[in-house]
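Q: Could you write out the predicted structure for this multi-component system? I'm mainly interested in how the pieces pack against one another.
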Amino acid sequence: MAPIRPGSNMTAIASALGVSAATVSNALSGKGRVSPELGAKIRAKAEELGYVPSVTARALRTGRSRVIGLVLPDIANPLFPQIAQAIENAAADAGYGVLIADSRGDSSMQTLAIQRLVERQVDGIVIVPRLGTRIADLGCPVAVIDSPSTPGNTVSSDHWQGGQVVADHLVGLGHRNFVLIGANPLSNVQNDRIGGMKSRLPKGARFETIWIEKLEALAGAGCSLGLKQKVELGFTAFAATSDLHALRALTELQQAGIRIPQQASVTGFDDLVWSSVVSPGLTTVRQDMAAIAEIAVGALVGVIGDDAAEPDAATITVGVTAVAKTDRVPMTLVARQTTASVSSPDFSPASPALEGNDP
Amino acid sequence: MAPIRPGSNMTAIASALGVSAATVSNALSGKGRVSPELGAKIRAKAEELGYVPSVTARALRTGRSRVIGLVLPDIANPLFPQIAQAIENAAADAGYGVLIADSRGDSSMQTLAIQRLVERQVDGIVIVPRLGTRIADLGCPVAVIDSPSTPGNTVSSDHWQGGQVVADHLVGLGHRNFVLIGANPLSNVQNDRIGGMKSRLPKGARFETIWIEKLEALAGAGCSLGLKQKVELGFTAFAATSDLHALRALTELQQAGIRIPQQASVTGFDDLVWSSVVSPGLTTVRQDMAAIAEIAVGALVGVIGDDAAEPDAATITVGVTAVAKTDRVPMTLVARQTTASVSSPDFSPASPALEGNDP
DNA sequence: CTGAAAGCGCTTACAG
DNA sequence: CTGAAAGCGCTTACAG
């Protein structure tokens, strides 16, 4: 097969104009000094010939590919579209392409997926690490998106604050009896969210936390989280650490004949696609992915730098973590269940007011 | 910044062994004839030095980047994770990387996103086209994933057959009164799915089709599809062309106090993440994304070819469509609502049996 | 079987 | 301000 790219290269422009390729390069990059007139002529000719620079040649020469990699623990994660979109946008704005990696759901494949990226000579990698994973030195700059509670430098939403926002909203609706629903007690993100929620529950509020790791396992008939019983026990607010769990709670409650939001409120996190589609809509908290992506990509680009690759093997930079400090990006409430018929803001259940049964 | 990659290149191996770079290249690629002993020595030394080939240099020399692009109309599409994962896997198996493109939700940006990909010299592009979009000649091989009903060469699930599978399932449960729910009457995919469903409704069955394009608009309080009334009119099966619409139907029915699956069955399409999480689970139809991705990537790789780029400008290949024929990949039912209390398989509604009120 | 040479398209010191 | 030269790391005819 013939080459895909149009035939025009710097040499073509140079010879068409009787100048050198170096001058064309200088004119087009604006780096070397070129007379205004010649510069204009060169740019015009480039335009005329439909010149498209060869990123490949540039990469070979400069040692920078202008591509970053994106790694998620599980590409099937419902948050992936939001993240990928934000990263791609931020990268494109910075002149970078985004190569994706998938570990095929297998934890042990994650390293291989990252390695494939490195072999493709990405200039840096954005990683949303698998739960509990420490990212090894990759030999290239890395930006980690994770909870601020995670050791090491990360960019992240302020999940704790997000939890507070949800709790404030629920408390404002009059709720005093909370069921907090999490997926994994080892997740820093989820612990932050739950911690933030708890921190805003008023004196006398009652809460209970349930962790449900394998949500799909409940799909079988008869399986349930027992949420109906919680309602019978006087719980009225069901606050999940993810929209997926909130969806489970919503449908299970509805299935049990509980009216939402009249008898109970359900909230989630992340404003995933279905939260605006279910009836009633899910109150949730949205991450500012654009801001997170900008910080992550910006940090990466900063470390990658603009200087050319000097073949100075002695100073090979290994395992740079690009994000220099822990950035916390605020989250915003998306309230879709704005009413609730909780008896009164001062309502206390018949059972003694507990500070919770949590460990 | 110093170059990221380890210092070892072919020249390093060559000089360490006192041979030429050409021989190293031949030994490592297995293309030129090299004596078995020398070949082994070279491979050992490469291993020892931690040699990683420069994809950049190879790309510059061969004219092929070994990267393909992936373009979806809307990266926020809930099917995106499934597709991206499948394409990435198929591409990795074929030795290709995957660069993503995003049009930022803006239809007019799609062309720009594709152009960015082309400028990065991808060897080919996999496109899931925006509704009604014809893909212009891109100057590089393209594989289109779309409905088989779409003009031109495409790879696709057999959406019609998928519709039949759903209908067969519902009919088998005893349903005779169907509400078909689609998102967009202009979508070939959805028309195929609905067409397939209709084709399997038995004589005397009644059906009605409703199209609901802006699902999110329903999130507001009071908005509804009026599904409760449908139940009152005797409809028992609600079959949507997407899990997102099915989710809306499920929650709206539950919200209205209808018991699922006792009083009505709800089915969707695509086995999106929440279909196994809601209560009760959604019966749905799964696409074989792995097979589709393999066909798409395989076709692309076939067109890209193994031959080197001869600078034969006269035969620049423009707008190749890589997929040579319309492939139809069968879909499989995922039944999660396996019971229904429809009076009897021969039950006919009081109202006259219609062939449907559809145009 | 092995090597010397050219070249993919660009950028970057270094001269002029 | 402009150009000649070298080189990023590889592959591919072509000689030997």
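A: Regarding packing and overall arrangement: Chain B touches chain A through 87 residues (CB under 8 Å).
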